[in-house]
Amino acid sequence: MYKKVVVKVGTNVLTDDHGELDRQVISHIADQIATLKQQGVTVILVTSGAVGAGKALLHLKHVQDETTQRQVYSALGQVRLMDLYSSAFGKYGYFCAQVLASKEDFQGKEHFENMKNCFRGLLLDDIIPIVNENDVVSLQELMFTDNDEMAGLVAEMIGADALFLFTNVEGFFTGDPKHKDSVLINEVALHDHSLDQFIQKAKSSGGRGGMESKFNTAKGLASNGIVTYIANGKRENVLTDLLKGEQVGTKFLSE
């Protein structure tokens, strides 16, 4: 059993077919995290979905600039997203806290130590940190590639045992997951480059990430002794099943 984990949930997991936040999915994710915490596992949640939540709430009539639109949608959506998480975790008596980060926070020593200290303080009092990129103030050149990259940096910062990257496909395949001839790869070794040819370059429809970023994050963490899983976050009990050792999704082995 892992003692400290980071769980990253992508936009396409959190939203329904209409692009709106899915209360049932968010509630089920909280159920699973609460179960892990009751078993003594320390959990940090990295979430996407704020921009999508903002877009689903309101159509901006006057803001035309694309960057400003993203900032406004993010600021608006963060409130909705955190409200749903707060309610979901509140059922179990857990408080959650919002941690907004930019790439700059991981580059300077002072910012890095401040964020690490914040995580330490939250975890000491059994508060669930919920991390998202601070799209409101992040400049284009200082943005993460996506939240997969940020989740990997958080996992390294806190010395996690494992990172769980939840998306809307079952794992890493030898081709397009929708193609009948594609095969799910259950395990990937650190120095196995034979699978590089199967990396899908396409970005996810709802977010900035894709399988390539997940693959690169997982391979990078493997060299630091952190196991990474890529799995379908909409699958029932996916997190608790993985912690029980069931073969779900794709596991990137560490050194």
Q: What does this 3D model show about the protein?
A:
The chain is 39% helix and 18% strand. The model is unreliable at 205-209 (pLDDT under 50). Helix 5 (109-124) links the parallel strand 3 and strand 4. The relative contact order is 0.17. The chain has an 8-stranded mixed β-sheet, with helices on both faces. Strands 6-7 form a two-stranded antiparallel sheet. The chain has helices at residues 11-14, 23-38, 50-57, 66-90, 109-124, 147-158, 211-222, 238-243, and strands at residues 4-9, 42-47, 96-101, 128-133, 162-167, 172-173, 184-185, 187-188, 227-232, 250-252. Helix 3 (50-57) packs across helix 4.
Give the biggest sheet.
Answer: 8 strands, mixed
With strands numbered from the N-terminus, the spatial order across the biggest sheet is 3-4-2-1-5-9-10-8
Count of DSSP-assigned helices: 8
Give start-end ranges of low-pLDDT stretches: 205-209
What shape does the CA trace take?
globular
* Quaternary: single chain
The CA-CA distance between the termini, in Å, is 18 Å
Q: How do the strands and helices of this protein lay out in sequence?
A:
Layout: E1 4-9, H1 11-14, H2 23-38, E2 42-47, H3 50-57, H4 66-90, E3 96-101, H5 109-124, E4 128-133, H6 147-158, E5 162-167, E6 172-173, E7 184-185, E8 187-188, H7 211-222, E9 227-232, H8 238-243, E10 250-252
Parallel strand pairs: 1-2, 1-5, 2-4, 3-4, 5-9, 8-10
Antiparallel strand pairs: 6-7, 9-10
